[in-house]
Every structure is written in structure tokens, then in C-alpha cells.
Design a protein that fits this description.
The chain has helices at 11-22, 41-47, 72-95, 131-141, 147-150, 179-190, 200-207, 209-216, 224-228, 238-246, and strands spanning 2-6, 26-31, 38-40, 54-57, 102-106, 119-120, 154-160, 166-171, 220-221. It is α/β, with parallel strands linked by helices and 248 residues long.
Amino acid sequence: MRVLIGGGSGFVGRELTRLLRDKGHEVTVISRQPGPGKITWGELESHGLPPCEGAVNLSGENLMNPLRWWNESYKKDLFSSRIDTTKALAQAISASPSPPHSWVLVSGVACYKPSLTAQYTEDSDWTPFDLLSRLVKEWEASALLPENVAKTTKQVVIRPGAVLGRDVFNGVAPALNTNYEFTKELGQVLRRPTIFPVPGFVMTALLGSERAVVLTQGQNVIPKRTLEVGFQYKYPDLTSALKEIVGS
């Protein structure tokens, strides 16, 4: 299968590219810089969509970029780097004489309002309530294909945690963990003592209030539809995932 990946040079994109190529699939990455196995965003707009059976967009300025201050310029880049690239891919798919079978956008769970009691599934109604939820709303809207194209190209949105004829899947693990539980579990996996998680006011001072909520507050997001279609999690809980990451 031929797969086109926008943002394939990022953290998730590199891993997805490696996984697909290991399974024998042909991957083309859309990047700002040309190179082997790549096309640029300019080439996508001028030459159109290359032949592919699947298209994925992972592009976007890193929300937690430690080298950038939380200011209006950074916020603008967060929106444009996601929405502009998604629009470009959606338009290229729509204009293609042979559009892909699947079009996947990876967005985020910031659309769900942080709550200690509410549970959210893919079927939960939501409305924008802050900057990041507005970003998700505009981001997902920019991926929509015209009705005639959507008849042959399946539209999928994956909403990962810390994603009309279109399927939405919560790309989170079934296990739910708080900041405190994460800190404690990480300490156990690393075999190091942990006293307390980083205080919220410290994260707010370092990252800005609108960005810090991603780490200091959470949503009880359930991958209902993801489990119903039979997806098998390789690391269904925090312990197994952390052990894989730290190599223990």
C-alpha cells in the first residue's frame, strides 16, 4: 500500500513511517525540505496528490515546544501549521482523479472540557470553550471532503491524548491516570523516589495558562468506538507503556 504522510518527520510521524515501511508499505512524506522519499508542501499544491491508497496528516507546530514563549505569534503558528496543511491535503485529495481510499487526520482530545466527573466517548457532544478546543474545531473542519469525494474516500479523525460519513476515534489507552498517578508510576519504573508532581502554578509560569492545562488538567476520555471495532492495544496501561519507553 502507498501511504502519504504530512508531518512524517515529526515524533509520531517518524514512528508511523518506520512501522509502515517495516510492514512493506511504500511511504512518501510531505515535508518543508525535499529529499529521498519526500515531497514538499509546495510540490503538493503545484503538482497535486501523488498516487496513494492512504493519506495521513500529522503536521503541526509542537504545542510543548520549550524554545518558544506562549505569545500571539506562537498561537498563530499552532493554528496555521495545522489548519493550512490539513486544507492543502484535503484540497489535493478532492482534486485528485484517483483519491485515496482513506484520509486520516490526527487532532487531539482538547475538544473535551476538563472534568473530574464527566466521561467522554467519540459520540459525546462538545462545543469550543477555550483556545485549544477552538483549534480542534477548526482543524477538524478543515479536513472535511466534499460529499462526492467522501463517497469513495473514508474520512477518519483520531483524537489522541498528552484525535457526516467520517469516523472519529479516541486514540487514548483504556487506562485512565492522573498527574499524581503518572508521577508515582514513573518513579517506580525508574526505581527512583517521587515526592510530588510538579505544582500547577509552576507549569503555568513556565508554559502559560492556556498551554499548561494540557498537563495540569485532564479529561476522562473513553476509547469506546476504538475498542468496538476490535483495536488491540499493545500497551493498554501506563505501567506497560512506561516500561517500554525506559527499556526496563
